[in-house]
TrEMBL record:
A Gene Ontology biological process term: protein transport
Protein name listed in UniProt: Armadillo repeat containing protein
Family as reported in the entry's similarity comment: Belongs to the importin alpha family.
Keyword Cytoplasm attributed: no
SUPFAM superfamilies tied to this protein: ARM repeat
Annotated PANTHER family: IMPORTIN ALPHA (PTHR23316)
């Protein structure tokens, strides 16, 4: 790519910039095999600049390019973080054009598949209020991607689960887990189950208070075996806590009673 930073850096003509960034995003794309990262890495400073362009198509393609570059191992995610794009990507989650939002959301979602420190960079940019907002988007695909992004955040550490809790996101996830289209319900279920796996006893009790047991039980009867497993894992984590509480208190597992009530 000897030409691309120069071409994209100085082109004042919008059509040329649009065509160049579209071509560039396609060069960053591809899984089998992915492009050699050393060859596409020099485009990162250019993409970082283009995130401040005024044209929605340019913004969208720049975000897609960053999403392709961050789709992979943590070293690639780190290179994208080091380019300084995270704060702007989070800001673009609130853009008025849905094609920009979808692309920025995929890039943010890929970054939070990294380790806890990488995920924290996105949280520190104020992503949770934006994701809260996107959970009630009119576009089902955006709601699904927001759930997927949150499922990778709730797979993080207890402080990160607490941040999701403090942002009042779990009640919406639980509602989506019971009422949304199936693809979205699946991602919401992952988000809840991940929180039950890594959460503190108090965090798990909070999820039960928000009525997560019923929607998890409902997923046990679907035809998708992977999601049945996910729902079972979540219920198992909750019932294990119920057992511990029972030993300390009344002797009955309150959560087992709630699960039984779901089955009449």
């Amino acid at each position: 790519f000897p030409f691309s930073p120069r071409l994209l850096g100085n082109s004042s003509r919008l059509t040329m910039t649009r065509n160049a960034i579209w071509a560039l995003s396609n060069l960053c794309r591809g899984k089998n095999p992915p492009p050699e990262f050393q060859k596409v890495q020099p485009t990162l400073p250019v993409l970082a600049r283009l995130l401040f362009h005024t044209d929605a198509d340019v913004l969208s393609d720049a975000c897609w390019a960053l999403s392709y570059l961050s789709d992979g191992p943590n070293e690639k995610i780190q290179a994208v973080i080091d380019a300084g794009v995270c704060r702007r990507l989070v800001e673009l989650l609130m853009h008025e054009q849905s094609n920009v939002v979808s692309a920025a959301l995929r890039a943010v979602g890929n970054i939070v598949t990294g380790d806890d420190v990488q995920t924290q960079v996105i949280l520190n940019c104020g992503a949770l209020p934006c994701l809260h907002h996107l959970l009630s988007s009119i576009k089902e695909s955006v709601r699904k991607e927001a759930c997927w992004t949150l499922s990778n955040i709730t797979a993080g550490n207890r402080q990160q689960i607490q941040a999701v809790l403090d942002a009042n996101i779990f009640p919406i996830l639980i509602e989506l887990m019971s009422k949304a289209e199936f693809k979205t319900r699946k991602e919401a279920a992952w988000a809840i189950t991940n929180a039950t796996s890594g959460g503190t006893p108090d965090q798990i009790r909070y999820l039960v208070e928000q009525n997560c047991i019923g929607p998890l039980c409902d997923l046990l009867t679907v035809m998708d075996i992977k999601i049945v497993q996910v729902a079972l894992n979540g219920l198992e984590n909750i019932l294990r806590l119920g057992d511990q509480d029972a030993k300390l208190n009344s002797g009955t597992n309150r959560y087992a009673v709630l699960v039984e009530e779901c089955y009449g």
